[in-house]
Amino acid sequence: MSDKDRIRSLLKEAELYKKQSLLTQSKGKYLNVLQIIESSRQLGNREKLLDAVREKMRAVEEKLTEIDEAPEVPELSESQHNLIRKRFSFSKDKDKAAIEGAVALAKFGQYEQALEQFKKLLRQGILPVVVAKNIITCLLSFSTADAAVAQFSQWVSRESLSRPQLKQIRAFLNSTFGKKGIKAELPKLDEAPAEAGKEDEEGDAVLDLSSISIQLESGPLKGETVEFDVTFQSGNSVSVIIPARRKDLLDSFKTGMELSDIQCFSPIGFFRANGVLFGKTEIKDGPKQGDYLLEIAINAD
Amino acid sequence: MANFNFKERVIECKIVYYGPGRCGKTTNLEYVFKAFKKTTSGDMVSIDTKGDRTLFFDFLPMGLGKIRGCDVMMQLYAVPGQQKYSSTRKMVLKGVDGVVFVADSLEVRRKANLLSLKDLQGNLKEQGHSIFKLPLIIQYNKRDLAEEGFPILPEDVLEQDLNSKLKVPSFTASAVKGTGVWPTLKECMKLTLLELQKELKWAG
Predict the structure, then answer these.
(1) Where is pLDDT greater, at A244 or A206?
(2) Would residue B40 count as lying in a domain?
(3) How far is CA A49 from CA A5, A40, A94, in A?
(4) What is the CATH number of the domain that holds B148?
(5) CA within 20 to 30 Å of B119's CA: A103, A231, A247, A296, which one?
(6) pLDDT confidence of A170, banded at 50, 70, 90?
(7) CA A42, CA A33: separation in Å to the nearest integer?
(8) What pLDDT is stored for residue A122 in this prediction?
(9) Among B68, B44, B69, which residue's Cα sits nearest to residue B58?
(10) Which domains does chain A have, with CATH numbers?
């Protein structure tokens, strides 16, 4: 094959690869052509030919740069966000699926939309610790460590999460900061002045409760009244335990459900209240391992 | 694993088009969308970049009618082929029921095919699937380029490279022209539904 034929064939291949967007391969063929032209003294119009091939190669290089520099995370439409949320959540459980959908948005780099979803879930009281940790992760991914600290401080001051939950989130923040080498001061929970002050200021905090009884309005035990000992209380949030063997009872409580008839017992009396179940989590270790912790926000008004 | 909604009597299966960058995965879906518009149950969604490269995924929903009183929906996806989008491919593969591996017949893409198949095997394994057990079809795409005199790999070389151990059904195709696209998808849907039948213990 003569040099001219080889050049013709290689140029054809280079054009094909360019058309197929196989740009690296296209560039490689143009380089081969340049080498042949440079080493072949018999070719006429060598300089003109070299210029023409270099020009074609430059165009390919520009396209390669354009692709390399294109934003890795494009702006997506609302319907694309919804598609991601719907198609990348696999749990049968509605709450878990909602979290998976928001996590998928974050994994596709749509942090702001993910954050919006997580905040909505937190307001609904769905798996608060998991959701709060995801909020922190989102903020650290697209914003700053200061934003994450500010968010945590807000949760502490507003009592939107219970003390044990805040402790878990604080530990998560500390560990994440440690891994990333970030030095930041987090509000100390035991000395959180705003939190302590809130009860004094408002003067309407729920009394210390020893137990609560709840009339069930749905589920397998509909109509029955069940009583729980309060295992932990922080302000108007109480935690109670359901033993693992009481599956019927467990199935009667769904996170986010409103409880319209709660009798609250304290050492100095009892009162009726309503509330919202904002947390239902399995206890992972300790003597109560396998049991479930229900977290209920009591509204005594 | 297929998603069963017994209350609404809907079964959703997920088929993923996998393969190296620029092998023609999106072109396969585009052809299906155009040619079978009546069967598709929604628009095709592509999340791509300026260079027309799939960035996150392509998505095309298809309705296959009723089986035993249940509506069967096929969700077709294509993954981004470029090596750097490994985590996105893993996400798109989650819950997969069947795979179409699109191989590029061009000689210069021989190594890319092998790397992509290995990547598929690894990602499936991470999700508890075996590439030898999951419904899988291989498509040798871009066969039309031979007519224009371009260097493509002979079918037996591709078979040896990619299918000597797997021994799964394979098809030649030209996605831009539409040849071989439907037979590939039809076979993948058939294998996926057979697997589903086994899972549901439905008698044949």
Answers:
(1) A244
(2) yes
(3) 14, 12, 66
(4) 3.40.50.300
(5) A103
(6) very high
(7) 15
(8) 93
(9) B44
(10) 3-69 (1.20.58), 78-201 (1.25.40), 211-299 (2.40.10.220)
Q: In this structure, is residue B39 part of a structural domain?
A: yes
CA distance A265 to chain B (A): 42
Q: Mark yes or no for CB contact A20/B22 under 8 Å.
A: yes
Count up the domains in chain B and report the number.
Answer: 1
Which residues does chain B have within 8 Å of residue A92's beta carbon, measured at their own beta carbons?
none
Which residues of chain A lie closer than 8 angstroms to B73, CB-CB? none
Token representation of residue A262: 């709660």
The complex's ipTM works out to 0.86
What local confidence, expressed as pLDDT, does residue A268 receive?
A: 61
User: Cβ–Cβ of B53/A67 closer than 8 Å?
Assistant: yes
- Residue B47 is nearest to which of A16, A80, A88, comparing CB atoms? A80
* Residues B80 and B88 sit within 8 Å (Cβ to Cβ): yes
